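INTERNAL TRANSFER SHEET
From: sequence group
To: structure group
Subject: Peptidyl-prolyl cis-trans isomerase C

Please process the attached sequence and return the structure record in the designated field. Keep the field labels unchanged so the import script can parse them.
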Amino acid sequence: MARTAAALHILVRTEAKAREVLEKLEKGAKFDQLAKRFSTCPSGRNGGNLGEFAKGAMVGPFDKAVFSCPLLKPYGPVKTRFGYHIIKVLYRR
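Return from structure group:
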């Protein structure tokens, strides 16, 4: 059976902006509020929620991070062709 995960993410254009967002999260800012404010991905308006997806469904670096980073802890920045992501994995199955 294919592995699946559910994750939130915040997509920004620059590594510097990604690090700034990560710093805000580490200081206690709410992930969904930062996603709505900063994310360039359409998922931003849903608090960055990508829902559940199968391993291999996302671009390589993003997929690798989702299936290896710690759960429930903001992780990144992860660079893809879309920009820089801060990822929060909700669960993996």
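Handover comment: The chain has a mean pLDDT of 97. The first helix runs from residue 15 to 26.
Transfer complete.
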